[in-house]
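Title: Prediction job returns without error message
Component: structure pipeline
Severity: low
Priority: P3
Assignee: unassigned

Description:
Job completed but the reporter wants confirmation the result is attached to the right record. Sequence as submitted:
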Amino acid sequence: MTIAIVIDLIDSLTNGSVMTAKRFAEGLRDKGHEVRMVAIGADGERDCAVRERYVPVLSEVSAKNQIKFGKFEEEKIRAAFEGADIVHFIFPFKLEKKCKKLADEMGIPTTAAFHVQPENVSYNAHLGKCRPFNDLIYAYFKHTFYDKFDRIHCPSAFIAKQLAAHGYKGELYVISNGYDGDFVPPAKRRANDKFEIVMTGRLAPEKNQQVILHAIARSEHRDDIHLTLLGNGPTKAALQKLAKKLGLDVSFDFLPKERLIAKLQSSDLYVHSATVEIEAIAAIEAIACGLVPVIAESDLSATKQFALNEKSLFKDGDSRDLAEKIDYWYEHDAERANAGGRYAAFAKRFSLKNSVALAEQMFADEISEHAARRLRSERQASRFPLFGRLQ
């Protein structure tokens, strides 16, 4: 297949959706498909690099969360779409809306993914769990974009249920974003000078990393714990200030893939504190490396699906409960080592290879149905030529 993927930007190393799209495209190419990216920063031979679209105020706010908006450049994008079997959309923004209209005009089948959880917007707008506001965003996305698709990729069953509850009509395909197969357990996990805890993720309000800091401050072993927060974002300065105030041993970093794998393989425990999460590939990568996770049990997060027992869950936002779970795993080395092996085996069901195979089926379903619809339309037009001209 020749697949065009539209996403506003592809040159951000700290945006999870962008990294997911890049990994997804690579997985499709590895299967022999031609993939053309339409995005800011696209640099492949058949890709279409678009310019950035400036939106007053919004562009400044979005930049803090590693988001840029692509400019619709019809002539270039039309050339990228020419000969494509299907166009797949990652975001529901203006570039994607205009590209969807163009793909329809060109008679190309389309599918869309749901990656922008409304709560991500509300938390960054300081509206937290304001349900009416989030419902409004779900409705806006639905009426302005997703109602135009018959098939929607949902990275988790959690978000598929959310879309169904909000009246999304397209067929919902639950397909993990998939983790890179290079994330594997170490041949032998080394002993550390301190108990190494790690979390990977954007430093943002909805990720709630401050609860980890407060939990470590409550821990009976606080002086023997080193925390690494991997990521960038708008709350970094506040987290650094809090860590200093609490007198904790905390490092902030952002690592390329090879060093990230090494860090996960050499750590002792993974904590995922996000209140809002569509899936969290970061958590899958950690458990694929044999790390036991402790995950926030939030009604707005899918990540809790990766916990194999209650010892890997803590009450969302509850630093006391998280401290108890950290202390438990600190004090039970053998059980943690055994559980790490089970988690690594469990992670394999979320491999990129499996996800690409499921996405291929979604694309094939849409291409087949699109062809059937066109054939029915042509037959109707031939039987009722006047009706066809009126349409």
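Comment from assignee: result matches the submitted record. The chain has 15 helices and 13 strands.
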